[in-house]
Amino acid sequence: MKYLLATILISSGLTSGLAPVSAFSAEMNPFESYSKAYKLCMDKAVSTQDIVECTDIEYRVQDKRLNVAYKNLVGKQTPARVKQLTEVQKLWIKYRDANCAFYYDPDGGSMARILANDCMLTMSKDRAAEFENMLKN
After folding, report:
1. Which residues have CB under 8 Å from 11's CB, separation 6+?
2. pLDDT tens-digit profile of 37-54?
3. Domain assignments of the chain as residue spans, ordered by start
4. Which of 48, 81, 104, 135 could potentially form a cystine with 77 if both were Cys, beta carbons 3.0 to 4.6 Å apart?
5. pTM above the 0.70 mark?
6. CATH number assigned to the domain covering 2-12+46-136
């Protein structure tokens, strides 16, 4: 979420009067491990709707990445471990959905929608990376 705020501030030019853009160091790269298309989309975003659309598109990219990693991981497990992984993944999806729904505060204005969408995107991206790391080990 902290990266999303930096992204919104940088791409919308809302950093005037706040910390200089250079304060957002390289280690806070808001686009690390996202597609290049996402960065380009966010660079062009000028409204809440633009940001939501960019996030929705990237969510689909990361969800596909997650599903590929999951299927590859399932293919390397014993039947007992497949059952365990399937149960864990169902619980993770339930948690992700509930957690991100909480971000969609009805009193949070348009930022609540951005935060909820970013939650789905970030959690899915991180889960895909987790599975990809498991496959490497």
Report:
1. 42, 43, 45
2. 999 999 999 999 999 999
3. 2-12+46-136
4. 81
5. yes
6. 1.20.1270.180
